[in-house]
Amino acid sequence: MTDDPAEKAAPPRDLGAGSEKYKEKAVAFRVLIYVVVSHLLAGFIWLLFYLGEHAPK
């Protein structure tokens, strides 16, 4: 029985996850999500005002 350290070594980590390119992509993705969500929220509020203005009284 041999104790080969290569057999017990942890699997290699993805070293790209901490890179600047990865961080830039993550920030761009977050900005895209924030823009989409804020536009959906603004559209919903606009819809509420539109429906309230045209509601039968």
Describe what this molecule looks like in 3D.
This protein is mainly alpha-helical. Helix content is 67%, strand content 0%. The protein is built from two helices and no strands. It has helices at 5-8, 20-53. The longest helix is centred in the middle third of the chain and has 34 residues, at 20-53. The protein starts with a helix and ends with a helix. The mean pLDDT is 86.
Give the SSE map.
Blueprint: H1 5-8, H2 20-53
Judged by helices, strands and strand pairing, the structural class is: mainly alpha
Instruction: State Rg.
Output: 26 Å
**What is the count of helical runs?**
2
Oligomer category: single chain
The residue-averaged pLDDT reads 86
Proportion of helical residues? 55-70%
Largest beta-sheet characterization: none
Unreliable stretches? none
Distance between the termini: 88 Å
Index terms:
single chain, 2 helices, 57 residues, rod-shaped, 67% helix, mainly alpha
Summarize this, please?
The chain has helices at residues 5-8, 20-53. By secondary structure, the protein is mainly α. The longest helix is centred in the middle third of the chain and has 34 residues, at 20-53.
